[in-house]
Amino acid sequence: MEDIKIMLMTIEHIEEVMNIEKLCFPNPWSEKALIQEIEYNQLARYRIITHGDEVIAFGGMWLIMDEAHITNIAVHPDYRGQGIGDLLLRALIEVAEREGIFQLTLEVRPSNYPAIQLYYKYGFEVVGRRKGYYEDDGEDALVMWKKGV
Ligand SMILES: CC(C)(COP(=O)(O)OP(=O)(O)OC[C@H]1O[C@@H](n2cnc3c(N)ncnc32)[C@H](O)[C@@H]1OP(=O)(O)O)[C@@H](O)C(=O)NCCC(=O)NCCS
């Protein structure tokens, strides 16, 4: 795909990011929570991917001590299966590594096969399970870690 860019997520992207969030998750973050992340959370690092003028994906993490906690990775449904999620995850890993952080963690639904495959591809491993983690339906979460480069 041409005209793809990775950029810092800012307040002006909120509306499009919220749209992707709603299309991707049963329990989307509120606009207020996202604004909080961008404007006030010093630990947060968020990136968007654009196609032309359109925001087609976003993702972010919190850098806590020597660990990066990925909070969100989402690709607009119309743009999946074209390497965008790959690009996004790689970008987040690079942001963390540039800040000297080589351990990354996240939670994912066991039913989310595409996401789990993406994380395996980048060296994440399942290390645990949180029972009934997701509030909307009580599904467990797999806890995945990527340790070292
Ligand atoms: C998970 C998600 C981010 C993947 O984004 P994507 O742009 O479709 O993924 P890509 O095309 O970049 O594929 C990258 C890798 O992901 C995995 N993958 C993506 N789609 C897949 C599918 N349908 N089945 C199996 N593996 C898949 C593969 O490992 C793939 O690598 P490969 O092409 O070398 O096999 C996307 O499906 C999404 O936004 N889902 C909804 C939100 C979500 O669940 N986020 C994760 C929360 S933990």
Brief write-up:
This protein is α+β, with helices and mostly antiparallel strands.
Structural class: alpha+beta
The strand line-up of the biggest sheet is: 1-2-3-4-5-7-6
The 3D shape can be described as globular
Could you spell the SSE succession in H and E letters? EHHEEEHEHEE
Q: Which CATH architecture of the domain at 4-105?
A: 3-Layer(aba) Sandwich
Q: pLDDT below 50 for ≥5 consecutive residues: which ranges?
A: none
Q: Can you walk me through this structure?
A:
This protein has 149 residues and is an alpha+beta fold. The chain has a domain at 4-105: 3-Layer(aba) Sandwich (Aminopeptidase), CATH 3.40.630.30. The chain is 30% helix and 35% strand. The protein is built from 4 helices and 7 strands; from the N terminus they run βααβββαβαββ. It has helices at residues 14-24, 31-39, 84-98, 113-121, and strands spanning 4-8, 44-51, 54-64, 67-75, 103-108, 125-130, 141-147. The protein has a 7-stranded mixed sheet. The two termini are 28 Å apart. The model has no long low-confidence stretch (mean pLDDT 96). The structure holds coenzyme A. The site of coenzyme A has 19 residues, from strand 4, helix 3 and helix 4. Its main location: cytoplasm. Acetylates the N-terminal alanine of ribosomal protein bS18.
SSE diagram, text form:
Blueprint: E1 4-8, H1 14-24, H2 31-39, E2 44-51, E3 54-64, E4 67-75, H3 84-98, E5 103-108, H4 113-121, E6 125-130, E7 141-147
The chain binds coenzyme A.
Coenzyme A (COA) binds next to strand 4, helix 3 and helix 4.
Please tag this protein with its features.
single chain; 149 residues; alpha+beta; seven-stranded mixed beta sheet; 4 helices; 30% helix; binds coenzyme A; protein-N-terminal-alanine acetyltransferase activity; EC 2.3.1.266; YpeA/RimI_acetyltransf; [Ribosomal protein bS18]-alanine N-acetyltransferase
